[in-house]
Amino acid sequence: MKKLKSILTRVFTAFSALLFVFGLVVFVCVLNASAGKVPSVFGFSLLQVQTGSMVPEYEIGTVVVTKKVDARELAVGDVISFYSLDKDISGKVNTHRIVEIEHGGDDNAPYFTTKGDHNDEVDRTKVWPSQLVGKVVYDLGTVSGSFIGVFRNPNVIFFVIVLPLIFITFGEAVNLVSLIAESKFQKKEDKNGDPEEKN
Asked: What is the DSSP pairing of strand 93-104 with strand 62-67?
């Protein structure tokens, strides 16, 4: 029973430590994101659809996961998120579908014509690789309110994820130290044996 408890404690401690490291990485990524830029963790970003331009594929409030990809891997039909150059929404993130791919510039880089599924016309400005946030790879469903905006806040990330994980990891570390001390004491007693039996 003690051996099983020891194994479970060590596993849980290792898991807690991994969670803590992950939470810390998320916190640092959010903290280091430039103003107006989307935080990225291991190349993945969370975005919330704010308009109806991609209905019915993505309703307003839908949370999507984007993955950073090489622009040359993209194809017509892919949905991408990018920093728009359109004067009406300049610098803001837009999520639309690629309808045409062309090549140009000194390195013959691909650039894209995009369009919202619900829009009648294609977007007025092209999308170049430097504008890409990533390709949409997963739809997490609709979430009401500014869910993503809240979790881009470093203070929220720290108090909701990092701080609780610090306490969990510290608690498990204390348990592990206690267990190791108890195990060493038990081994010492087993080695010395019962004093009464020696007499």
From this structure: unpaired
Residue 28: pLDDT band with limits 50, 70, 90? low
Residue 88: is its pLDDT beyond 80? Answer: yes
Long-range contacts of 7-10 (CB under 8 A, 24+ apart): 9/172, 9/175, 9/176, 9/179, 10/176
CA–CA gap between residue 37 and residue 152 (Å, rounded): 10
Q: What are phi and psi of 145, to 5 degrees?
A: 80, 180
d(CA 30, CA 39): 5
Task: Retrieve residue 90's tokens.
Answer: 């300049």
- Cα–Cα distance list, 152 to 24, 25, 136, 146 (Å): 14, 13, 19, 10
Angle at 79 between CA 73 and CA 85, to 5 degrees: 95
Q: How far apart are CA 47 and CA 54, in angstroms?
A: 14
Bridge partner residues of 93 (DSSP)? 83
| pTM for this entry | 0.64
Residue whose token pair is 């060590």 = 10
Q: Which residues of 103-132 are buried (b: 16+ CB within 10 A; e: fewer)?
A: eeeeeeebbbbbbbeebeeebebebbbebb
**Tokens describing residue 163:** 């701080």
